[in-house]
Amino acid sequence: MRQLKIYLADLTHVGNGIATEGFPLNIGLIAAYAKKFYPNDELDIQLFKYPQDLKQALLKETPDILGCSNYTWNSNLSYYFCSLAKKLNPETLTVYGGTNYPFDSKNQKLFLEKRPDLDVHIFYEGEQAFLKIIERVMTSKSLKESLSSALPGSQLLSKATGEFLNALAIPRFRELDSVPSPYSSGLLDKFFDGKLTPLVETARGCPFSCNYCNAGDKYFSKVNLFSDEYVREELTYIAKKAAEVGAGHVTFADNNFGMIPRDSKTAELLVELQQKYKWPSSITVWTGKNSRERVIDVTRLLGDSLSISMSVQSMDRAVLKNIKRDTIRLEDYKKIAEELNFQGRPQHAEVIMPLPEETMASHISGLNQLLDTTVSRVFSHTLQMLHGTPYKDDEDFVKKHGYITKYRVVPLDFSIIDDLPIFDVEQVAVASNTLSLKEYVEARKYLFVIDLCYNSGVFDLLKKYIRSLEVKNSEWIENIYNLIHAYPENIKLIFNSFENESQSELWDSEEELVRFYSEPINYQKLVNYEMGGNVLFKHRVWMLARESLAWVHTVFAITLEQLKQKRPERASEIEIEMRSLKEYTLATVNGCFSPENFVKPIEIDLSYDVLTWMKSKEVLALNDFKTNEPQKLTFAFPDSSIRVMSDAFTRYGTDLAGLVKMVQRCAGVSFSRRASLSATESLRVIPTATVERSYGPGYSAM
Ligand code: SF4
Fold first, then answer.
1. CA nearest ligand 1 atom 2, residue
2. Quick one: which atom of ligand 1 is closest to the CA of 209?
3. Is 49 exposed, middle or buried (0-12, 13-18, 19+ CB in 10 A)?
4. Whole-prediction pTM
5. How many A from CA of 206 to the centre of ligand 1?
6. Residues 13, 73: Cα–Cα separation, whole Å
7. In this structure, CATH architecture of domain 4-166
8. Which residues of the chain fall below pLDDT 70?
9. Contact status, residue 318 vs residue 366, Cβ threshold 8 Å
10. Whose CA is nearest to atom 5 of ligand 1?
11. Considering the domain 197-382, what is its CATH architecture?
């Protein structure tokens, strides 16, 4: 038997740093499974994440098989390498696997016809289907022979006749442990390079059937588990390796973490690893949509290292029915948010827009309901039209809901390889029967206000104060949004730019987009964040880096008027209290994006023990924390942040593009000063509040 050379690639774009930081777990699993059947030297498998490494390997020696992942964020990049491989050696068999692929034969055939340098596309779970491809190549004399009949679990166009060959799907694994761990077997060792984030999977499948998501297909409806022993061995292996290179984060690929009873054991294991190896310091999971008690219990163990995501998608019952998500109980979400908020745990809620029959009113009402659950942050994503869902593959469905779609570059997903610019592009919905393009843009502006006021952390004090006066978050946000026309000109300029770019990032076709950005001058605009990218992120950095003081003054002025109207009997008290809160907030943001000023501590005197007030779990009146004498607070960055930021200012520069890069790259750094009691101060608090105050000088509350 001859030795087969196989290259497997799960590529990331690199035009502006690493765009997709997850370990290539998918190709690791495929390689581990294949090696189980060919344990000796029959297979020479190499794995790739970075385009430059794959290019070098291809130029050195072409493989018998090149297998590439196919997602919206790397599809065109992968195709470039399929074409390169074919050019270097037409006998190389090229394979795609991944979710950016239609589920119906008609569209699958079209997909393959559009990509003549792609030979085979795997459908559904990849490990067994790829093994079939290996077996076929092993037993064939030529590429033509390999591609002369159908391959189980894949589709292809016959090399001889051009006929579309579609075999039956391969049933899913019953026992996921059939696939050896690519981590524990050392296959992924080379990716512990300090740049990538370990990605793990403890369960596969999803019991829900959301129609905008390809995991909602019934093929995936049963949830299969890797065994406890498998998970323990794999996570322990990762912990040791990650500790060596200082990687702190881990992402779980599971669709509903916390919903399965076993997940509590995984959470206990993670806590054990944190204690032993100081890893993971932070964790991303997609939490279960039902089973409220269990999700709360499991996530409690992980404390602040876990930012819990609650993907509600819409708060409108009719819309949830349209997207086949009505089995998910909104009540559970609300209870989870309340409980986590009480525990002081970070959490965020996500919605998608525009879903079928969502109106502007129902969308804004949904966002408002989420704001009022007191969830820590609220995000809204633009609906992506994904293959494997009717949104991309069913014309009648798209017509029925009147969808208007546009194309935009997936943020950071561009590269230049061999002087050729390559872009990966997403198709998004920007209007429907029930929501116009104008409303789409307005909804984004509303989201921008939420992002700046509610999500950014700048106004955490104000949020608490508003609640103490029994004003709803949604009323507060709506009021700030309604007064955009009255903002100062420098703030309006940022809002206008946000509004313009929300539209100018959209293109009528992928071809038009590629033509435009392929011009060197326009490509450079992507690199500089002048165009494309994450429009909301860029404008947030712009506001907080350049206009933070004006923005804080604006928000406080609007809020003061609102609160005085709401509580006229307390107007003068509110004015005094708000003055202190504003002074505090200004000190946290003043000069934070200036290399000269951010290191300078700021001291202020306050008449309230704001630190203790913020720390209290209950929402108490600020007035109860009035001090006998002014309390001196120092606002400064911790030494660790100063080091990282000083380096980043030098590395990226201080123009807007540099600052955006800096915020993006310095994950874990909070770009605002922290408050602590000045070293010479002792506490002088009138003992009316019922919260713990057993801390001394230097204590930091934020
Ligand atoms: S719950 Fe999440 S993973 Fe499952 S079908 Fe819905 S969107 Fe997809």
1. 255
2. 5
3. buried
4. 0.90
5. 6
6. 8
7. 3-Layer(aba) Sandwich (3.40)
8. 1, 292, 327-330, 667, 679-702
9. no
10. 216
11. Alpha-Beta Barrel (3.20)
